[in-house]
Amino acid sequence: MTKLSVNINKVATIRNARGGNTPDVKQFAIDCERFGAQGITVHPRPDERHIRYSDVYAIKPIVTTEFNIEGNPKGIRKVEDGERKDNLPNGFIELVKQIRPTQVTLVPDADGVLTSNAGWDTVKHQGYLCDVVKEFQQCGIRVSIFIDANPWMIEMAAKTGTDRVELYTEAYAREYHACRDVTGRVSCIAPFVEAAKVARECGLGLNAGHDLSLENLAFFHEQIPWCDEVSIGHALISDALYLGIEETIHRYLDCLK
Questions:
Q1: Does residue 70 carry a catalytic annotation?
Q2: Helix, strand, or coil here: 145?
Q3: Which of 95, 148, 237, 240 could form a disulfide with 10 if both were Cys (CB 3.0 to 4.6 A apart)?
Q4: Could you report the per-residue pLDDT of 19-28, keeping only the tens digit for each?
Q5: Where are the domains of the chain?
Q6: Where are the beta strands (DSSP E) in 134-174?
Q7: Residue 177 annotated among the catalytic residues of the structure
Q8: Where does 27-84 show beta strands of DSSP type E?
Q9: Catalytic residue among 33, 43, 50, 221
Q10: Active site residue: 70, 166, 221, 229, which one?
Q11: pLDDT tier at 82 (50, 70, 90 boundaries)?
Q12: What global pTM score does this model have?
């Protein structure tokens, strides 16, 4: 069964645009689980423009399914005026080790990037990833590496000792939207099917995420039914503006049946 983990970053974006606590990110996470989501994902960035480090601490105790924290292990939280205003850790690694979520997803975000836009080069960063994977696993945390649909990069990811890889699916979503027939759609997902098979052959668990939506998720699941988890935020929260969050989660779960 492929689990649905709801990324709630965009809820925090709306809250931060106005200040205060509306919408309530913590309550939203509770409701997502109540409506059937099998996991909650957050991606705290150094500038805390959406999910804040304090949110991660607030959400941890209320998650009853799986808690997934995404981010760049090299990330350092930007503290106002260079001074610490709270007792929260500045580093992503420190944050994750204190929270001890079910899973940490390593994403190579560059400073200032609008959204995740590339997977890890697991050849160039092999040594570093080996060290980080080991450090998190020693805390009992499952590790997933965000990666392009590149068989060689997946094989090299397996050598880091990671538990899973997460396929970066933006290219699939873009090409699927442009296709108007089944043949074209089979072609656009072919590299992802190949990559998923390599991951399975390497003994890796498989996640997927980025621009998956009600438009393209069912076909993705049909072609790669052994995917363990999809993490979906932007499209899902956007759909909820029209459908409501309960109906939206039900429709995404239907795509995974």
A1: yes
A2: strand
A3: 237
A4: 999 999 999 9
A5: 3-255
A6: 142-147, 164-168
A7: no
A8: 39-42, 67-71
A9: 43
A10: 70
A11: low
A12: 0.94
